[in-house]
Amino acid sequence: FVSNEIHYISDPEDGLEYAKKPINTLISGGGDCEDQTLLLCSLLETVGVKTYIAFTDDHVFALVRFNQSHPVPGVAPHLFVDGIACYALDAADPGALIGDCVSKPYAVERVFDVRRRAPVAFSIVP
Length: 126
What we know:
About 20% of the residues lie in helices and about 25% in strands. The protein is α+β, with helices and mostly antiparallel strands. The model has no long low-confidence stretch (mean pLDDT about 80).
């Protein structure tokens, strides 16, 4: 829904990043990668899917975590939080499937827990 219905709209070019509340992104029908990611994570968390937000130097995307007993077959995890696989889900890419992302795992600089609103430690296993 998010990648197909929410249009990519860049922040104003004043050098600052603005993160909209998910409801504002939904109402306006557009936002940049962090706005789309926040909306996607909000929707997924509402239905019980654990999410994180991954930051690179030039992109933001969602990470989804499933129960260990339900890994995604045939898809490599993007990284691990607390030893549990997390899979990329890029809200800004209309063609992306779970596990697809324009950013490579090694490019992730920070991971943020959506529900706790706090950074988390993560590991990348080659």
